[in-house]
Amino acid sequence: METKERCGYMVKSISNEQIKHMEQTYLANREHLLSQRTVMKNGILASSENQKAVVENNPVFSIDLDTGNVTNQKQSGRCWMFAALNTFRHDVLNNHHIKDFELSQNYTFFWDKFEKANYFYENIIKTSNQELTSREVAFLLATPQQDGGQWDMLVAIIQKYGIVPKTIMPETKSSSSSRELNTYLNKKLRKDALTLRTLIANGSSESEVETRKVELLQEIYNLLSTSLGTPPTEFDYSYYDNDGNYHLEQGLTPTSFYDKFVGTDLDDYVSIINAPTKDKPYNQVYTVDMLGNVVGGKEVRHLNVDIETFKNLAIAQLKDGESVWFGCDVGQSSTRDTGIMATNIYSVQDTLDINYDMSKAERLDYGESLMTHAMVLTGVNLINDKPTKWKVENSWGDKVGTKGYFVMSDDWMSEYTYQVVVNKKYLSDNLKEVVEKDDVTVLAPWDPMGALA
Known about the structure:
The chain has 453 residues and is α+β, with helices and mostly antiparallel strands. The protein has a single domain (56-450), classed as Alpha-Beta Complex (Cathepsin B, Chain A). Helices cover 42% and strands 17% of the residues. It has 17 helices and 15 strands. It has helices at residues 16-27, 30-42, 44-48, 51-56, 79-96, 105-126, 135-142, 151-161, 173-176, 179-201, 206-228, 254-261, 307-319, 348-352, 360-365, 410-416, 429-436, and strands at residues 3-6, 9-12, 63-64, 235-240, 246-252, 269-273, 284-288, 302-304, 324-328, 340-341, 373-383, 386-393, 405-409, 417-423, 440-443. The strands form 3 sheets. Strands 3, 6, 7, 8, 9, 10, 11, 12, 13, 14 and 15 form an 11-stranded mixed β-sheet that branches. A two-stranded antiparallel sheet has the order 1-2. Helix 6 (105-126) crosses helix 8 (151-161), helix 6 (105-126) runs parallel beside helix 10 (179-201) and helix 10 packs antiparallel against helix 11 (206-228). The longest helix is centred in the middle third of the chain and has 23 residues, at 179-201. The two termini are 46 Å apart. The mean pLDDT is 96. This is Aminopeptidase. GO terms for molecular function: cysteine-type aminopeptidase activity.
């Protein structure tokens, strides 16, 4: 057996004798052979699905908001954007009684891409004194921009650019299926990073670098306009309400449309996270370095709280009839077809005879879990004022779950949900003081709380 010393330990290869023993051990176990026949035929998850979890998570809730039909992000990573715009859409449906109403996800998509390009340029300039091999520069170049984002990033877009109805700036091929756009946008941004770093290395002045950056942004604007369409600056909006009455609003701007049809003060909302890791004590506010889109816009901030407080804040907002944006690790222990998110939906550990148990903190620390998807809480089932399951509005169309709605068990909420956004009026006085202070801990760019949904 070949060995080599490394860090005080002997690194050892696998011997033929060890492999023979492993084979004999496996074949001697009848349960292994039973699982082998089932998994080879049906796959791991299908062989492990637990019908008890389906029965426990039937779509009936003591608090169930009427939020209309679900939306569909299609082949794009805009879940965070769809989820946030859906929370506004719910208000428009209730307050203005408009049929089949959606806000333009393409409009906010355009401006998010445009602002992310500038945010990338500014970070490239800021790190221009570092080697390409530095972790920060390598992080920036690995993914110059992507579809994903966080709540505060959409707030920054809306506060600067407003929003428009979907009929005013509808979907395009590149918004609904964004792979090609991202490929060529990131290709350009990496080339532009080379251009900017070279200018600075050659001693160009700050004004010369800024002039070139603006020229590069013009090319970004051109690329986005070609792919997504040119965003409207003024428009007329006509619609029928639920009673069949015709309405016409003339001379609107994206900002005046937001003020008239939504009107929510977005500064009243705060991102709440549950990250039970040692490096993030509860009841403190965190931000993430190099995470954002609009330079000078709203900063991404998270208030970390224990899971009971986390849930109670979401419940308080739902009780008042308002849906809740949330971020989670949707790929963990969930079904796409039936729309069940439950820790016991699959008994993979029994099927494979392997222990996968880790705490929420351990999963975060070891890269096993982070926020991958954003959706909307539109209901909760309370027994003795304690949650047992949650109603979830997804943005994958109406062919999954119950007409697009999922059911999340309360255990799953505890283990795999990381972020909710609530009105700060629901915070305790102590937590209100915490979020209003300037005392913010800055996390590394690659921290799991910087993951983009």
